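Posting this for the archive.
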Amino acid sequence: MQWNGKPLTIGHFTARVPIVQGGMGIGISLSGLAAAVANAGGIGVISAAGIGMAEPDYTSNFLEANLRALRAEIRKARSMTKGILGVNIMVAMNHFGEIVKTVLEENIDIIFVGAGIPLTLPSYLEANSHTKLVPIVSSAKAAGLIAKRWLDKYNYAPDGFVLEGPLAGGHLGFSEEQLDDPNYQLEKLVPEVVAEAKKVEERAGKHIPVIAGGGVYTGADIHRILELGASGVQMATRFVTTHECDASPGFKQTYIHCQPEDIGIIKSPVGMPGRAIVNAFVEDVRKGIKRPVVCPYHCIITCKEESSPYCITLALMNAKKGRMQHGFAFAGANAWRAEKIVSVQELIDTLTQEYNEARAH
């Protein structure tokens, strides 16, 4: 199935299909999913968050276990595809700098950075690096702030922006009040961030694509977002219910079985609202049944360990393994629409057909 629209170009990388697969920690998007998306013509993304969870020394040697697993997953993905690969890194992670350096040493194509303002990211680049740097933002203001700092201090402009709207899954860059406010909906934000990117382009003299995500579910949705000026879309929820997704079958079935009313906003220990599939674990947290635990990882700078009712890393690790009684699944607002497990190629073919049909009309 041939994509009839424009490809997505980030620096010297061009993806035939303008879809970036969103990074999903902990252990949901690893080499299996990322390589499959890259092979299908999109951009596959490994999430660095909690990536070392399967290492035997994960609890006792947290940093080294994560860096070792990160290298292994990047190399494994590289062995499976000649396509474009990225790594998603949270700015709020402890050891952010060490993670960035490791990813650059592995010569990844693109680094996507979210969950914070990555003001110093270009400082890690070597002169001969081919890696592109793409911040994840939730507003034109944030995009402008990052671009100004990077250009003023490092003479480097972002190679693109990912704009995540309020319908995304996982941690959200909005307050709870903003989630339902029409002024913060993706359709309103895309033209604003595109206009900001154009200003940066004029100063930097290079193309800066905007990739929009959060609630993008069908090929028709992709067409609508691209018509607003975006150069590509980011999709994560759709890729969970694929054979190649690195989550357990139990995790994927949580998506298949959930209903619209099951998807809600939770208060995360890291201090941000998050969208998840509400289950008994989440309900217990809301009722105050869960009690603070001893933190084994110290993984997120903003996590209030002493007052948190649970460890989010442990909860998400359990969910990845399908142990939903001890955790929960992050999910986008449209997760309830999933009906069956398909291959990544089947999904891309479906999206392509839907996009081509919307474009033809």
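The CA atoms of residues 269 and 312 lie 7 Å apart. The first helix runs from residue 31 to 39.
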